[in-house]
Amino acid sequence: MNTLKERVIEELALYKRINTRMFDDKYNNRARQVRDILSKLRKEGYHTIPVVKNIYVHHSLATQEQIKLYHKSQLKHLQTQYFNTVKPIGKLVTDNKLKNLMGTLDELFKEIAWNNSTSF
Known about the structure:
single chain, elongated
């Protein structure tokens, strides 16, 4: 029997799309595992875009609007993580290189926030 990763790769090779719930059975919800596999595949250059709940398509099948919305949501996620987690903990950092990096990140996220308000 194939592993879940092999089954996901096979499904993607055949259809270039996947429903993260398609491998569920009455005992196991495997959607999280499938999303984890999709994440690992991105590191290998295989990019999927969520188009509706539980449905991911290869980026070549996604519309520019779907890609743009996904990109924007990922930037928003990074920004939220930074301001809610990294920055508050950064107040405890004493390493000057890390403090300088955080200053750079502050500027970057200000730029992202400005661009999101003007171009989207």
